[in-house]
Design brief:
- It is a single chain.
- By secondary structure, this protein is an all-alpha fold.
- It has 13 helices and no strands.
- The protein has one domain.
- The chain has helices at residues 2-8, 24-40, 46-73, 81-92, 99-111, 126-136, 144-148, 152-155, 158-165, 169-206, 227-232, 239-244, 260-270.
- The radius of gyration is 18 Å and the shape is globular.
- The termini are close together.
- Bound molecules: zinc ion (2 copies).
- One zinc ion (ZN) binds at residues 109, 113, 210, 223, 239, 243.
- One zinc ion binds next to helix 3 and helix 5.
Length: 292
């Protein structure tokens, strides 16, 4: 990742800054999704809830935590390419953009955490770090060429370029499939409510875990370990651990730090599916803030 570091070290390449006008196309889509998510609550059933939780695990658990974050951004382990691609498609189901854009944004976050150039630091406001940066930022989610500068390792795969340009296609296909299987109620739960829930839990990692929780490591940023965010995000809430050891596939470092993605990774490793798994432990003395 040294190439990335060199390119972003100055902070001048920051993609997002304060004071930009509202991005209305993003805001309108977000508005529609939130209204539909509330509407879903009026057609509750246990089957719908179960389907929604399962899809949440597929999209946010496999797609974001296992895929976009620990695999595509930080390369903390290796899996066969088809599984890498599968995780990326799962990630696109969250409506958090394509893999190249997500990875680029997150690498910039690590490079400039809570300093100038961080796309979503609570030092610029709690609401800004949660959703403001999405609503008023430049719409770079489809600007593959621009974002590829920060993710050249992904950009050399045509698959990732295609998925980044058409990141909304898997979600649309899933919506059509769910509609055919279970009608509008399943679409409300499996798409709208599930996507909105996933967006907010992911955004909590940007907002809450840079404001609330404990700090095991004296990193140069404000990152915290937050148990309830970790519970909601398959272990992503152990964010101070993560900033201290960005390339560790394991985020929950103590036995009481529940980290479902790490547990799954251990299973994949035991079957020989996941290899070169990088792991930090509590014995690794001080944080190395230079590692990003
Ligand atoms: Zn962070
Ligand atoms: Zn990270």
């Amino acid at each position: 990742m040294t190439l990335i570091e060199e390119k972003t070290a100055t902070g001048k390449d920051s993609e997002v800054s304060l004071g930009q006008p509202v991005n209305w196309s993003v805001a309108i889509v977000m508005g529609i999704f939130h209204v539909a998510a509330v509407a879903a609550l009026f057609v509750f059933s246990w089957q719908l809830l179960a389907a929604s939780i399962f899809l949440y695990w597929i999209a946010t658990g496999l797609g974001i935590s296992m895929g976009y974050h620990r695999l595509h951004t930080h390369r903390s382990y290796k899996v066969p390419l088809f599984l890498e691609y599968f995780f990326a498609v799962c990630g696109a189901l969250t409506m958090e953009g394509g893999p190249i854009s997500w990875v680029a944004t997150h690498r910039i976050h690590h490079q400039n955490s809570d300093r100038e150039g961080d796309p979503h630091s609570p030092r610029d406001g709690g609401w800004w770090s949660h959703a403001g940066w999405i609503l008023t930022g430049e719409a770079n989610h489809s600007n593959t060429r621009k974002m590829s500068r920060y993710a050249p390792d992904l950009a050399k795969h045509n698959f990732y370029v295609l998925l980044n340009n058409y990141h909304w296609v898997p979600l649309l296909a899933l919506a059509i499939l769910l509609g055919a299987i279970g009608g509008y109620k399943l679409v409300l739960w499996g798409i709208f409510l599930r996507v909105v829930f996933g967006l907010h839990t992911t955004w909590l990692v940007n907002s809450a875990t840079h404001m609330w929780g404990s700090r095991r490591f004296a990193t140069r940023d404000d990152s915290r370990n937050n148990w309830w965010v970790a519970l909601l995000t398959f272990g992503e809430g152990w964010h101070n651990n993560h900033h201290a050891h960005p390339t560790s596939a394991r985020h929950g470092l103590a036995w009481y730090e529940f980290d479902p993605s790490w547990l799954l990774l251990r299973v994949l490793r035991s079957f020989g599916v996941a290899k070169s798994v990088r792991m930090a432990g509590l014995t690794d003395a001080a944080a190395d803030p230079k590692a990003a």
